[in-house]
Amino acid sequence: MSNCxxxxxxxxxxxxxxxxxxxxxxxxxxxxxxxxxxxLMVDFCxxxxxxxxxxxxxxxxxxxxxxxxxxxxxTLDKHFSxxxxxxxxxxxxxxxxxxxxxxxxxxxxxxxKFKAKGCEVVGVDPAANLLxxxxxxxxxxxxxxxxxxxxxxxxxxxxxxxxxxxxxxxxVAFLRSCAYHLKLAKSREGCGTLYVEFxxxxxxxxxxxxxxxxxxxxxxxxxxxxxxxxxxARLTIVHVEEFPKIHGGTVRxxxxxxxxxxxxxxxFLNMLKTEKLQGFHDLARYEKFNEGLQSNLGLLLSSSFFQxxxxxxxxxxxxxxxxxxILNTLNGSLPVEYIIDDAPMKVDRFMPxxxxxxxxxxxxTEEPGGLCFVMFAHNFKDExxxxxxxxxxxxxxxxxxxxxxxxxxxxxxD
Length: 414
Known about the structure:
- By secondary structure, the chain is of the alpha/beta class.
- The protein has helices at 59-63, 74-89, 109-116, 131-136, 171-180, 201-206, 223-232, 266-277, 283-309, 321-329, 381-391; strands at 13-21, 38-44, 51-53, 99-103, 120-125, 141-143, 158-162, 193-199, 219-220, 236-243, 250-256, 313-317, 338-341, 358-360, 371-375, 399-401, 409-411.
- It has a 7-stranded mixed sheet, with helices on both faces.
- It is globular.
- The mean pLDDT is 91.
C-alpha cells in the first residue's frame, strides 16, 4: 500500500520488517502443513503519523475460517458489562428500546448484554462460522461485511465498532458509513453516538509489544491519525475513555455527527498534545521501537532456553494471533512444546506455519514437573495466573515468562 489509509498521502517509510509470515489466524488441523507467507512490514506516514501494513491479505483469506471468539475471557466479559452501562447512561433521552448496531459482532457476547437491558440489537459480521454462537444467544446477525446492503437506510441510537477499524482496508470510508447509519437530530442531545474502540499503537510502541502486528490489522492508529480520519468522515470526538488492561492499551472514542462545526473534546485534545510531546509524531520514535523490539525478542529467546536448561518445560499460554507473530518472527526457534488455550475451536489444531500443537488448559494437570508459561496472552495476565492456579500446585514451582514490557521470569505463585 503506497498511500496512507488515513490521510491519502504518499511517501510511506518502512520502520518494521518481521520477515515472511502466514495468516496469523490460520490454525490448521494438519501437521506440517505448508501455508503461504507474505512479508509482514509496517510503514509510517510523515504527514499524519499513521502506521500501516505494506502488504495485505484479502478479506476471504482473513475471515473465511475465523476462530477468535470474544466470549472466553472474564476480563472482556466485565468490560462488556461496563460498556453497556456506560453507553446507555450517556443517552440524553432515556428511550424504551434504543436501537444498537454492532459492527464485527463476533459471537454476540456484547450485544447479548445490550439485549438483556431491553435494547433492539443487530449485529454484522462476515465470519459465517460464528453465526451459530450468536444465534444461541438470540442475536440477530447479518453475515456480511460492513457496510451491508441489508441495513439499507436504517438509523441507530448506538453504533459499536470494537477492534474493527484497524482491520478495514478503507478506514475513512468505514467511518463515513457509520456516520450514515447514526440517528440524526437538530441538537447534540438527540444524536446517535458511534463508539469506536481500538488498541492505541503508541501504547504498544511504549511497551515493545509487537503482538498487535499481523495481517488482520492493516492500520496502527495514533491519536493524530484518528483525528484525521474522523474529520474526513465529518465526525466530532465528544468523549474519550482509556482502558490500559484491554488489548495492551485500548481507547474508546465517542463520536457524533454535529450539524455545526464544533471542536473535539478537551480530553482528546490534551491527549493529542501529550502524544506529540512524547515524540510519536516523528519517525525516529518508531525506529527506536524497532531497535528495542529486536533486543527484547532476543532476550525472550535466551530466557526461554535458560528456563529449559533449569529443567522447566516451556509452554505457551494463549493461541492468539499475537503468539503467531512472535513465534514466526523468531522462525519457530522458541522452545515451546505446546500452547494451551481456553477456546474450544482452537484446541487440537496447530499454530500457523509451525508444528506447535494447541491443547486445552486442563491438560497441564497431567504435567508432573515444573512448567514455564510464556505469556502470549499478556493482556489477560492477572486472569490467567488465577486460572493456572486452578490446575497447578505450588510444589510444582511453575514460572511465568513475561513478554512485555520486558522479557522477565517470575514465580507463578508470587
